[in-house]
Each structure stands twice: as structure tokens, then as C-alpha cells.
Amino acid sequence: MENIVDSFLKDNNCDNYIHELYIDKLDPHNFQIILYQGKESLTKDENKGYNQKSLIVSKIKGVDFNIYSGVERYFSNFENDSSKNKIHWQMI
Q1: d(CA 10, CA 81)
Q2: How many domains does the chain have?
Q3: I need a labelling partner for 34 at 20 to 30 A (CA). Which of 7, 43, 44, 92 fits?
Q4: Residue 84 confidence (pLDDT) above 60
């Protein structure tokens, strides 16, 4: 996975763009990963319609990636206590 993300960033290096990683579980043994870069979120309309945002942001090779897995619709990240390395979740 690291090599794929590294190649993606080398081929699509745009500092002003949003970077997103989508994890789609197809069944118990298979999943699909989508790497995206653009001026706005790939799921902008869905995010707005469901009042959702990425619950996880990960810095990969110095670039912030919003990570989506589908649970954003059911939980919200309402408190991030980085001093204690804890994130508190709230059911929607």
C-alpha cells in the first residue's frame, strides 16, 4: 500500500488539492481502495447532504489524506483530545 500511495503522490503532486482515500469493503475477504486528489471532495454532495466529514485524517508522505470507510454517516468526530491521543465519537 505504501508503494501505491508513494507512486500516486509522485504522479499527482498538487499541494492545493484535497487528498482522499476511500476504503470500500466488498465482502468479508475483499475490499476496494480509491485514491483521489481534486479541488473538492469526491463525495462533496454526499458529505453535504448527510452533514458528514472524514473521521480520520492521516499524514502520508507529508500529505494529509481524509480517509473514508462509510462509517462517517453514522458517527461524528466531535472531540479530538490530541494531548491524550484520544478521539471521542458520537453516534448520529
Answers
A1: 33
A2: 1
A3: 92
A4: no
